[in-house]
Amino acid sequence: xxxxxxxxxxxxxxxxxxxxxxxxxxxxxxxxxxxxxxxxxxxxxxxxxxxxxxxxxxxxxxxxxxxxxxxxxxxxxxxxxxxxxxxxxxxxxxxxxxxxxxxxxxxxxxxxxxxxxxxxxxxxxxxxxxxxxxxxxxxxxxxxxxxxxxxxxxxxxxxxxxxxxxxxxxxxxxxxxxxxxxxxxxxxxxxxxxxxxxxxxxxxxxxxxxxxxxxxxxxxxxxxxxxxxxxxxxxxxxxxxxxxxxxxxxxxxxxxxxxxxxxxxxxxxxxxxxxx
Amino acid sequence: xxxxxxxxxxxxxxxxxxxxxxxxxxxxxxxxxxxxxxxxxxxxxxxxxxxxxxxxxxxxxxxxxxxxxxxxxxxxxxxxxxxxxxxxxxxxxxxxxxxxxxxxxxxxxxxxxxxxxxxxxxxxxxxxxxxxxxxxxxxxxxxxxxxxxxxxxxxxxxxxxxxxxxxxxxxxxxxxxxxxxxxxxxxxxxxxxxxxxxxxxxxxxxxxxxxxxxxxxxxxxxxxxxxxxxxxxxxxxxxxxxxxxxxxxxxxxxxxxxxxxxxxxxxxxxxxxxxxxxxxxxxxxxxxxxxxxxxxxxxxxxxxxxxxxxxxxxxxxxxxxxxxxxxxxxxxxx
Lengths: 276, 334
Prior knowledge:
The complex is a heterodimer of chains A (276) and B (334). Chain A is globular. Chain A is of the alpha/beta class. In chain B, the strands form three sheets. In chain B, strands 1-9-8-5-4-2-3 form a seven-stranded mixed β-sheet, covered by helices on one side. In chain B, strands 7-6-10 form a three-stranded antiparallel β-sheet, with no helix packed on it. Chain B is globular, with a radius of gyration of 22 Å. At the A-B interface, helix 2, helix 4 and helix 5 of A face helix 7 of B.
């Protein structure tokens, strides 16, 4: 049985109309409905994620990757109209319909999101350690030394200098902030981690180390992951299977090697050929 | 009704003294009982009832303008005046003192407008309005303590957005406050919050207990009396009903601690089990005195007087004598 499966997930920003789905998408060449002007961020997305699997989602900017990732990771700021269903093996019912408290509980124990933007995921005035500790404290840890120990070991695991753990997060380098986010996401031993553009804005050597670190931890901890990136290299390194998105639709999916070596869809071919 | 003139305009006074003499009713004629009009008092009482029904939850109320600047106890005055009746006895404390200008003025306002008896004796009073202290003497089920509140939301310390904080209260999501405590321990080795200590009420709402010292926080737990917290500026009030669980937030291995005074005793009454404050004498030397002046006077007459001397059964009321070696706890936080 799959760990997480999505069926017909759709997210529309704007009023929406009956023509929205028909007049947008890959064939129409746009994600904005010409009739009502609504933006169809993603539509009719089906996917499933097996335990311990890493699923890659690639696509150009604006293709709906992050909108989809936020839905899958139970982000509370759910703007727009949302349709479809997301089933999670450890929770009955549709994850898109859960109330705030259930969502909070799931996010503090089952599904973590590493945000694309640092500021969405971290409180930069808190210390790096405090940001990681927040997840533990929110899920009921009440022993200071235990929290401290766990945070220090997470810092070690994600290769952040432990002696920096009590400094304010805004004094950290970009790579360290990204690692703090990953440490925070892993703090409560989640079943699924959703990484939204995990390496954006990092230089190549730091990118490689962050990805290496995540791949090691992902294998050691047997956590399933969804990696969203515009960077084919990231997906090639991490993902077992890959979805390609364009104009809010999944246009191609398959084993990562197959998609990258033998792309069927015209857009995927262009995407791979234009990688520098 | 254009030809109507006020009675005062018809009278011509010769001097200011004559005007003052004519006010033989002290100018109180025409004022409602207890200064506030009946609708306002009813509204405040309804809000208090709601606050009692949802312990620790902040209830909005209208908060009228008072003859005093907001932030000077206007919330407390409105709550006090709304629940006072002519048979009540009223006491006002300002940081433990009955004699501060503000306390004396509030007491006089209640005496003049609500015709209540006033007292400085905690055990004689029915309603006590207080700023930043809970009396040392144990309160009973017949008494109401009204606390003046400058900041209603404990979470504002960690997030200035009231909208976000209201959402956190609604969902009992206090992770951010716990991070604040965690960072406090990181920095100081113990939780070092001097006043406004975040407290959990009835296991549900996080409450700002107003700027009482940590010393007074344990008195809120399972007390016999009703506590009403009222903020005039923020137009919100909340309550801790009698016999409610009130628990200061703390870690299992970094427990909540009250202030420690070492070997200091009150230089007037010799007490070592009351909240002491430092004063500097003319000789430049620091001395300690009781903060609660009313109880200090009683202790001066009878040094053995217990904090629950007036109660029929033993009442646990706040911290006892701090145990020896209490100063050694804390740890270095690393």
